[in-house]
Design goal:
Largest sheet: 6 strands, mixed
Oligomer: single chain
Strand order of the largest sheet: 6-7-8-3-9-10
Number of helices: 7
Length: about 220
């Protein structure tokens, strides 16, 4: 459970808040959309949830712990994983090697057990054996995003933050990625938060928040 209590944020040297008294809650087992136009503040909010930025005021609670009191490096390594619009795969690593990276960052020695786990994660997002040893440049955009999702899962984090995950994909691949994220949330009991400007992506989620001019409202409350 991630809870935001009156979170505001102002860039250093700025004259006005980018986020304004944001309140929200995000639960495991559900997909949550933060819907808004470019510049509305939604990516800034995602950065705060990820512990990359600190709120100017207000609190972020993660399973009842104040995020400001936690070891943020450990939090980002073990509790939360990011999925990006531009995939952010390591270009000189194969698909399966990319998936193993978070395991290595947690201190695992990559042996048969870890390789088998990476294979299972790739299979779970629809990446078959023939693609496991391909480099990102030899994968389609949809395939790269699915590898990125498998990599996020390999960290063991139960919260996935997806920043415009369908932004670089065609309609069919975008729908597939959203369906994968919904399955992960519902069947794996993950908390999935998707930042998007795409109304169709938002409508597919369990909970929809709308961001406008730094203010957040739950869709049903508008």
């Amino acid at each position: 459970m991630i809870i935001l209590n009156n979170v505001s944020y102002r860039y250093r040297g700025g004259t006005q808040d980018v986020l304004k008294n944001v309140c929200a809650s995000f639960e495991r087992g559900k997909t949550h959309a933060i819907l808004g136009a470019s510049g509305s503040g939604k990516s800034t909010l995602l950065s705060i949830i990820a512990g990359l930025d600190k709120p100017t005021s207000g609190t972020v609670l993660v399973d009842e712990d104040d995020l400001s009191t936690l070891d943020l490096e450990k939090y980002r390594r073990e509790s939360i994983s990011m999925i990006f619009q531009a995939f952010q795969l390591f270009p000189l690593l194969t698909a399966i090697e990319n998936v193993c990276v978070p395991m290595e960052l947690k201190g695992a020695k990559i042996k048969n057990a870890e390789i088998n786990e990476a294979k299972e994660l790739l299979h779970s997002v629809g990446i078959g054996d023939s693609l496991h040893k391909r480099y990102p440049s030899n994968l389609s955009g949809g395939e790269q995003q699915r590898v990125a999702i498998a990599r996020a899962l390999s960290s063991g984090a139960k919260a996935l933050l997806a920043d415009e995950p369908t932004g670089n994909l065609d309609l069919a691949n975008g729908v597939e990625v959203v369906n994968i994220l919904k399955k992960i949330a519902h069947e794996g009991d993950y908390c999935v938060i998707i930042v998007t400007h795409n109304l169709e992506v938002a409508d597919a989620c369990d909970v929809v928040y709308r961001m406008s001019d730094g203010k957040l409202s739950r869709a049903e409350d508008i």
